[in-house]
């Protein structure tokens, strides 16, 4: 398969095979139909691997691949229930926010504080483990647009076109993603208890 | 006067598009007085730089 050839550049076959297995068991749980599950995994994997070279770590690739798989599964489920083509952007609603108070000002505990030196942090394996955990904790759609923007470096227009999102929805998703990601990194890395 | 939620939204959008002059002015006024949003803006920049450094250093020897 063409998509797989591209991949050899960065990831080993075993890595992909183990990723595929994890995807399949996830898809089976969601779809309850072996064929649909395999199709979804195949499509998601092929789609995801086109950009695999943007992800140099296996764990980030996994988050990326799963964000695509979740979307595929949602598409399949939507098709089964014959719902309207595009659901409203459900992660766009600006509710349930622990970050801001009723007037839109930072809650006391949520106010960003200085991160300190990020020099050479990129070399820290532990930091990227925390980063991946934080990325994975985001709602799938937010994680996905964040990765498209920051790792694959697509511009807004390209992301909107490929996901059929309006520009303002995209900006909302990226805003939410960045708010949560930086809060998570602060909690679990920059301001963690020693 | 922008709220912090609005200010962070603009700071985030500033990573993805060029802000208009009035938007920039509003942000300047807000961040001059608000350390939380000032740090937020800084951290977005750090995040982007970190991801860039990590990608550049990534173990992808045969990258095309
Ligand atoms: Zn503020």
TrEMBL record, chain A:
Annotated RNA polymerase sigma-70 region domain residues: 16-82
GO MF terms, alphabetically ordered: DNA binding; sigma factor activity
Residue span, RNA polymerase sigma factor 70 region 4 type domain: 131-181
Keywords from the UniProt entry: DNA-binding, Sigma factor, Transcription, Transcription regulation
InterPro entries registered for this protein in UniProt: RNA_pol_sigma-24-rel, RNA_pol_sigma-70-like, RNA_pol_sigma-70_dom, RNA_pol_sigma70_r2, RNA_pol_sigma70_r4_t2, RNA_pol_sigma_r2, RNA_pol_sigma_r3/r4-like, WH-like_DNA-bd_sf
SUPFAM superfamilies: Sigma2 domain of RNA polymerase sigma factors, Sigma3 and sigma4 domains of RNA polymerase sigma factors
GO biological process: DNA-templated transcription initiation
Entry similarity comment: Belongs to the sigma-70 factor family. ECF subfamily.
PANTHER family: RNA POLYMERASE ECF-TYPE SIGMA FACTO, RNA POLYMERASE SIGMA FACTOR HI_1459-RELATED
Protein name from the UniProt record: RNA polymerase sigma-70 factor, ECF subfamily
Automatic annotation (TrEMBL), chain B:
Residue ranges of every copy of the Putative zinc-finger domain listed in the record: 4-38
Gene Ontology MF, one: zinc ion binding
A Pfam family per the record: zf-HC2
Keyword check for Zinc: yes
Protein keywords: Metal-binding, Zinc, Zinc-finger
InterPro entries the record matches: Znf_put
Protein name: Putative zinc-finger
Organism encoding this protein: Thalassolituus maritimus
